[in-house]
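Bumping with the actual sequence this time:
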Amino acid sequence: MAQKEAQKVAQKVAKKEKVFGYLPNDQPPIGQMILLGFQHVLTMFPATVLVALLVGFDVGTVLTVSGVATITALVLSRIIGGSFIPLYYGSSFSYIAATLALTNAEFATYAGDSVRLAQVGIVATGVVNVLAGFVIRWIGKERLDKVLPPVVTGSVAAVIGISLAYAALDMAAAHWGVALITLLVTVLFSVYLQGKGFVGLLPILFGAVAGYLISIPFGLVSFDPVAVEPWFRIPRFTLPAFGDPRAWSAVGTIAVIAIATIPESTAHLYQISLYVDQLAKRMGREEYKLSRLIGLNLILDGLGDLINGLFGGVAGTNYGENNSLMVITRNYSGPALIAAGVIAILLGFVGKLAGLVNTIPLAVTGGLAIYLFGVIGMQGVALMMAEKVNLYDPRQLAVGAAILVIGIGGHIGYGGNLPINILPGIFPDGLPAIATAAVVGIFLNAIFLIFPGPEVPAAE
């Protein structure tokens, strides 16, 4: 009874605040859903396509398969977990070095049969994630939180966002004026459109359109990609080369990188769970508590990689960029993400549509990325704040400090791989920085679990 009264009070407050947003199981009207879905595609498109171009995979295939993986994960999360887990599954930067070690691809050049060899490792990555998900469902969230406490997941999330800082600035450098104007306009839209109804959910789309229009007088917009693309194309779907004598080597090279994406995926779900419940409270509705579905989320993450590996997509993860988009816009709708998946599939088959998206200038993408990547990092900080991580405790401080320095320093200073020659057969370019940072944090935390040491009270 008391809970119902509290919800009524919250609903009155929500009306007074003019809180407008969509929770995971909400379905917007069809027109809104298409616009919201396109905004998601706009957010995931640069990274998903860039990874495909870097490692020699077919862009159309990668887009199509990412859409299929996302729709599959969303539908199964609704059926099994009772709620959509609002995440988009796109290409992961964590696997670039390992995949390149197998494909030896030149930029924007299809790597041929080497793609099929890499697919073997991507399938194995999916198996690792699925097994990890089942283990976590078996041991329970409480035990997982001891192994991956908020100081680990929050710090890893912060590292992911900050480590992408150079990538954002590198894109912005294509034209600083356009990038900074795009950034400013997008930030202003995201702040001042709040409480304005549906338009308040579209600041990234509006920012991109504004940046696009600003780019035209500077000669940054070219419609050549539209002209050269056919209306209809069939993506290069390929099967993994399980019979290749180097198959086990591919498994060892790629699958081990899951050690980076498992903490990353966990951090993303905890972040989105926090913000979804915050919006639900403001709207006077029941909390979703999505963090309870962490095991299912990893299983679905793994299923996404299985789909990628079986049909020619790049190893993936759920996207922090789209998490940032949802936090900024207060749109967590699962059906809107399904619409994004459908649009991604269409992009894979409709060449003109993909070509049109490709006309968006790099500087505009860079301006958006500065905001989106930064929000990923800030979400990690927000997660630690919400979970009341005691940074006056030297144990917590040590775990977070080690993760930040190893992850950020290794990613920016050493190009993503630490110059540590351990297991050169698996990591020929050195240990992956974010994965190593996560492992070091987990290891330090495990020491403090076994040998607790004195308690240090939090600040008043």
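The tokens above came from a reply further down the thread. The beta strands are 89-91, 316-318, 417-418, 431-432.
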